[in-house]
């Protein structure tokens, strides 16, 4: 196998069909006799169901089935099982499902919803984390103690769904040193909607005692297992297949509409289609969570960070969901980037009576990087050091300790900062600026990591010289399933990537996989695919050696042929060898599996974590230039540059596309996309009329430099490249705006009204009174107790 042969600017084989509208997404699927479903949702944020009568609705024209909480006995969750499919007696957020209907037409299903007799007694609601953490706050989950715990070791209680801590070193001693400056910063970020082009959609059927779920998801195995748990059936009774997905970004990294359709299919005996409307997507989307952050650092005048502590409050909404897991990531994002003498952090997922939140591209990392980099600039200003010089002095390097005590390999961020200097210096100086706008620039760094976890793959060699790759991977738009995986298999077998057929995800056909997200497709599925292809290669070379009369070690596979090394034109075609192998011993196939290596952390450092240390760190350096209109507060991004750690760039063309798209999505988070929740608990932005996403005129071409060579356990030295491009954007824009205006930027998004308030000094410094001054007072129980539980 030639590593070089795996690297190419391979175009996407699915691009033409997608551009011409020929791709059939889940939303395009129809089955004979299919019914249409709709979900009845609560109209209050908190309350008790006094009466629920579906008898009149069941008699409505076209209605074939109605299901409620009585039909779904299970509870799901991450870390704790706190989430029922339907509200059971208690309403916890505006929009919570109460019942679902299947009818011959969607209009009939919606008419039946209106005929359901439901009475809800409203309760006082807690809509903010400050409200939820108040001493007299009503509990979103009064029965939280009764929930099944799925992962031991965390502290939880009251409206705190989960608490994860990290402590390394003597932080109190660091802050007590006489030679340090203590810098404290507070930050707040709002929610962000994924705005995937294809809403969450499913077509479910029930036949021969098994469910078949066709769905738009990133996690077919999670959908399989969670649906079975909710419905109280064995997971083997659920089959999940995934057509092309019209965008995910983390929205579809969790269970969504699938169990409703499955229940209705079983109850009606007919296939059932359920598709969220755009309004439902906007009101009940698993948003990137809003967060409040306080961070303090003890820094010497020379610029060494001897101590750091932080409190991060993450609004998980009415149920724990992904935020339970994401509490882990604070240690690796807010605790990343820089060498720390000692550190202690707590990350808390807080229940509120609002729509549940979830994963979103670089989840947790985007806002923690914003907070960390703004805090870093405030440190540099306090000690009188150039912010770029401060970063060069402190960025993580070879053998440095991370927050959890893991040891990093290789000096990556330092050389990447130098690469950014080169990229910036190559730019012609801007013309004289005489338009009265305020100009600023900033360079920020970021630390992310690739989610690894279990993946499986099978490669079947076909007699015509093509190969079929079978995995549970999903094509969500990033192109990894259409580009990097075929490249890896093709280079191993000496064939063209176009000759690798990629099978759509099917949990009945492929082995377990954690899911597509977190930058893990090329790494985890790629490693499993490489292993499977290598097994096939070994089998083919053995047969070819007999046909060519040469030792297997003397043979090479390239350009569709198996030849003697150094003798082009010798040997046989791969198709001939595959045909012979099949005739001798049957079909030729190989299987592969992969999971994380398990990097060690320092014992006792973490409590309540799902990941103590990170297998594959990924780094990014961003540089942003902005102009701020002092009359309107409008921020224009003039130039944007990215140096991204990719390990090994298998497909530079594809990575460039991911970086450009990720930066634009990050600009939406930084400047435009604002979610507000009214006093009634409802999201105020119900459509594109009120939710502003970046438009064509907001897009800025990104100058890109791919940094290769950093250590990675990924196949052929690769790292995930699709997740990290959004990581630094909010930080880079915020730091540039702060430099342009001379004002303290503490919140995102930087909408024009918010920037104008800063310019007019009408914005008071952010204070987070619901975060206690003493770090330990923000804990349910001490870190030592939690770590030893």
Automatic annotation (TrEMBL):
SUPFAM superfamilies per the UniProt record, alphabetical: CO dehydrogenase molybdoprotein N-domain-like (SSF54665), Molybdenum cofactor-binding domain (SSF56003)
Pfam families hit by this protein: Ald_Xan_dh_C, MoCoBD_1, MoCoBD_2
InterPro entries: Ald_Oxase/Xan_DH_a/b, Ald_Oxase/Xan_DH_a/b_sf, Ald_Oxase/xanthine_DH-like, AldOxase/xan_DH_MoCoBD1, AldOxase/xan_DH_MoCoBD2, AldOxase/xan_DH_Mopterin-bd_sf
Domain of life of the source: Bacteria
SMART domains: Ald_Xan_dh_C
Residues of the Aldehyde oxidase/xanthine dehydrogenase a/b hammerhead domain: 20-124
PANTHER family from the UniProt entry: XANTHINE DEHYDROGENASE, XANTHINE DEHYDROGENASE SUBUNIT D-RELATED
Protein name as annotated: Xanthine dehydrogenase family protein
Species per Swiss-Prot/TrEMBL record: Bradyrhizobium quebecense
């Amino acid at each position: 196998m030639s590593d070089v042969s795996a690297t190419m600017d391979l175009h996407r084989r699915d691009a033409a069909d997608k551009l011409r509208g020929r791709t059939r997404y889940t939303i395009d699927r129809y089955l004979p006799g299919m019914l249409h479903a709709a979900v009845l949702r609560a109209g209050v944020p908190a309350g008790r169901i006094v009466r629920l009568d579906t008898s009149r609705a069941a008699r409505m024209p076209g209605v074939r089935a109605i299901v409620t909480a009585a039909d779904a006995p299970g509870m799901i969750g991450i870390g704790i099982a706190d989430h029922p499919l339907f509200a059971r007696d208690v309403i916890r957020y505006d929009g919570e499902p109460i019942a679902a209907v299947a009818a011959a037409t969607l209009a009939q299903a919606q008419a039946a919803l209106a005929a359901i007799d439901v009475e809800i007694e409203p309760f006082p609601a807690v809509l903010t984390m400050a409200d939820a953490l108040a001493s007299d706050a009503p509990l979103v989950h009064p029965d939280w103690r009764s929930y099944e715990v799925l992962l031991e070791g965390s502290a939880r209680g009251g409206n705190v769904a989960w608490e994860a801590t990290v402590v390394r070193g003597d932080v109190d001693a660091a802050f007590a040193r006489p030679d340090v400056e203590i810098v404290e910063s507070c930050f707040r970020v709002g929610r962000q909607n994924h705005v995937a082009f294809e809403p969450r959609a499913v077509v479910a059927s029930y036949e021969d005692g098994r469910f078949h779920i066709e769905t738009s998801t990133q996690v077919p195995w999670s959908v399989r297992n969670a649906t079975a748990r909710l419905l109280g059936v064995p997971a083997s009774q659920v089959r999940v297949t995934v057509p092309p997905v019209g965008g995910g970004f983390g929205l579809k990294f969790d269970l969504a509409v699938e169990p409703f359709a499955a229940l209705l299919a079983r109850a009606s005996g007919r296939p059932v289609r359920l598709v969220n409307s755009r309004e439902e997507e906007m009101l009940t989307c698993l948003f990137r969570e809003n967060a409040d952050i306080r961070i303090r650092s003890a820094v010497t005048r020379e610029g060494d960070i001897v101590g750091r502590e932080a409190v991060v409050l993450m609004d998980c909404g009415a149920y724990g969901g992904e935020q339970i897991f994401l509490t882990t990531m604070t240690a690796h994002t807010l605790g990343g980037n820089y060498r720390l003498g000692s550190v202690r952090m707590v990350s808390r997922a807080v229940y509120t009576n609002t729509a549940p939140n979830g994963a979103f591209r670089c989840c947790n990392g985007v806002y923690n990087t914003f907070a960390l980099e703004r805090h870093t600039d405030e440190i540099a200003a306090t000690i009188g050091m150039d912010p770029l010089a401060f970063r060069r002095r402190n960025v993580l390097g070879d053998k440095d300790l991370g927050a959890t005590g893991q040891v990093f390999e290789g000096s990556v961020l330092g050389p990447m900062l130098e690469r950014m200097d080169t990229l910036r210096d190559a730019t012609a100086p801007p013309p004289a600026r005489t338009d009265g706008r305020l100009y600023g620039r900033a360079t920020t760094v970021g630390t992310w990591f690739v989610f690894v976890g279990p993946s499986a793959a099978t490669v079947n060699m076909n007699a015509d010289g093509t190969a079929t790759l079978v995995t549970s991977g999903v094509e969500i738009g990033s192109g990894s399933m259409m580009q990097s995986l075929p490249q890896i298999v093709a280079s191993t077998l000496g064939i063209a990537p176009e000759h690798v057929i990629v099978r759509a995800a099917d949990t009945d056909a492929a082995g377990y996989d954690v899911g597509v997200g977190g930058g893990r497709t090329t790494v985890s599925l790629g490693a499993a695919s490489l292993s499977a292809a290598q097994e096939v290669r070994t089998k083919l070379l053995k047969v070819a050696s007999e046909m060519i009369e040469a030792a297997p070690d003397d043979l090479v596979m390239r350009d569709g042929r198996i030849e003697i090394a150094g003798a082009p034109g010798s040997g046989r075609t791969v198709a001939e060898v595959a045909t012979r192998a099949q005739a001798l011993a049957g079909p030729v196939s190989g299987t592969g599996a992969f999971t994380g290596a398990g990097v060690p952390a320092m014992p006792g450092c973490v409590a309540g974590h799902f990941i103590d240390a990170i297998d594959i760190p990924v780094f990014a350096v961003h540089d942003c230039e902005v102009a701020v209109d002092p009359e309107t507060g409008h921020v224009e991004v003039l130039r944007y540059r990215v140096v991204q750690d990719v390990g090994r760039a298998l497909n530079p063309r594809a990575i460039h596309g991911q970086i450009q798209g990720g930066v634009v999505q990050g600009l939406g988070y930084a400047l435009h996309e604002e979610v507000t929740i009214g006093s009634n608990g409802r999201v105020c932005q119900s459509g594109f009329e009120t939710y502003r996403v970046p438009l064509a005129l907001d897009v800025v071409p990104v100058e890109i430099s791919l940094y290769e060579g950093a250590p990675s356990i990924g196949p052929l030295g690769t790292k995930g490249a699709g997740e990290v491009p959004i990581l630094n954007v909010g930080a880079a824009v915020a730091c540039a705006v702060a430099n342009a205006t001379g004002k303290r930027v503490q919140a995102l998004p930087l909408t024009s009204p918010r920037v104008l308030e800063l310019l007019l000094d009408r914005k008071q410094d952010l204070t987070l009174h619901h975060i206690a001054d003493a770090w330990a007072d923000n804990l349910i129980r001490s870190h030592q107790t939690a770590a030893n539980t």
